[in-house]
Write a structure and sequence with these properties.
It comes from Mariniphaga anaerophila. The chain is 47% helix and 14% strand. The protein contains 17 helices and twelve strands. The protein has helices at residues 7-17, 20-25, 28-33, 38-45, 48-63, 78-81, 114-130, 144-155, 176-182, 200-212, 227-237, 255-262, 272-279, 281-286, 300-312, 317-324, 328-340, and strands at 67-70, 89-94, 103-107, 135-138, 159-162, 186-190, 216-219, 241-244, 267-268, 314-316, 344-347, 351-354. Strands 1-2-6-5-4-3-7-8-9 form a nine-stranded mixed beta sheet, with helices on both faces. The protein has a three-stranded antiparallel beta sheet with strand order 10-12-11.
Length: 355
């Protein structure tokens, strides 16, 4: 609620003071010394209007049964938590399992063609046929987004809409009925509090949540510029898999997909079989996990990785690097070597767990 305090500064404040509560009881002199705060932000943190606004938000949360997750909570989505610019707070409504076994974001142009709509339906119908645990994430916008949500509802696949405003409104209002239906098998997610004004910049900002929640982002249709390509770029920066469906060279809303494929920003897929191949889902379904030999000799660093994964279960490479305080390049080589020794399983989205 404090102007000028975004996710990065909020994390710094909590890290330096020890807790969110301590942030507001810390003396001004101590706050000013925290990197990025200074006198102006320190003064803002003491503004009583902030607490009044927060109280109103709490009333809204209780009245409408909104689920709230702070970034230090155990229930905060694990994939999103690994992203450096993840929201400090997430609001959600409905029945959303953001930590589903498989999560796919489907994005695209607001001017979806019949071709794009057909691709959405074919892909999501195949997810339903496979009957494995999966969540479809999109942005509830016109075009490909709403088509993805509608097809998920049609075929009984859980779906979550990430919106660029508070949960007191639905934008566009034309999609309110679809949003209502999603509550029973999915729901809505946002990092914006109630009363947030509808602003174009918010929809760009929410794209990081769409990308961060998923193992893979799929671009169905896009012009040469657009929000879908921004989401794909963000997903790539998170080391998540990005895919795109190709289209005709003379079709405006396939140019973005064709271009991102040509520049190696996304892998080309034509159907669910391609997606499963790239994600390793086909292998996971058909091959039983084999217990690694108990007599494999481990280096000191490998023992640290094994102990960490035994404790945490599954972690992204960035999380492993952070927990072990090792450079990413060293961790990457270490994990690759452990794969060769059949000690690890690589999950979708470049997440690791022990065999």
């Amino acid at each position: 609620m404090v102007p000028g305090i975004g996710g990065v500064l909020a994390r710094n404040l909590v890290a330096y003071t020890g807790s969110a509560e301590n942030v507001f009881s810390e003396p001004d002199k101590a706050l000013i010394k925290i990197p990025g705060i200074g006198k102006v932000n320190a003064k803002r943190l003491k503004n009583s209007a902030v607490f009044e606004r927060a109280e109103k938000e709490l009333e809204f949360i209780r009245k409408y049964n909104i689920d709230v997750r702070f970034y230090t909570d155990k229930c905060y989505p694990r994939r999103l938590k690994a992203c450096p610019d993840a929201p400090v707070i997430l609001y959600s409504k409905g029945n959303v399992n953001a930590d589903e076994e498989r999560v796919v974001s489907i994005v695209g142009t607001r001017n979806a063609t019949d071709y794009g709509k057909m691709i959405c339906e074919q892909l999501i119908s195949k997810f339903a046929e496979r009957n494995y645990p999966i969540l479809i994430v999109s942005g509830l916008a016109y075009g490909i987004d709403i088509q993805a949500h509608k097809m998920a509802l049609k075929y009984g696949v859980p779906t979550a809409g990430v919106v660029g405003h508070g949960l007191d409104v639905i934008y566009p209002s034309l999609h309110a009925e679809t949003a209502r239906k999603m509550m029973g098998n999915g729901g809505l997610i946002t990092d914006f509090p109630s009363g947030t004004k509808i602003d174009p910049s918010n929809f760009v900002r929410r794209n990081r949540v769409i990308a961060g929640l998923a193992d893979a982002t799929i671009v169905v249709e896009s012009a040469e510029k657009g929000g879908a390509l921004i989401t794909a770029e963000i997903a790539s920066s998170y080391n998540r898999d990005v895919f795109a469906f190709p289209g005709r060279v003379d079709e405006t809303y396939s140019r973005g997909c064709n271009r991102i494929i040509r520049l190696n920003g996304a892998s080309l897929i034509q159907d669910i079989d391609d997606l499963e191949f790239f994600m390793g889902w086909e292998t996971q379904q058909k091959v039983q996990t084999v217990q690694p030999s108990l007599f494999v000799e481990l280096t000191a660093d490998e023992k640290k990785v094994v102990e960490l994964l035994q404790r945490e279960g599954e972690l992204f490479i960035d999380q492993i690097s952070s927990e072990l305080r090792m450079p990413g390049s060293k961790v990457s080589a270490l994990l690759l070597n452990m794969e060769f020794k059949s000690l690890l399983v690589v999950l979708p989205g470049k997440m690791y767990k022990l065999k």
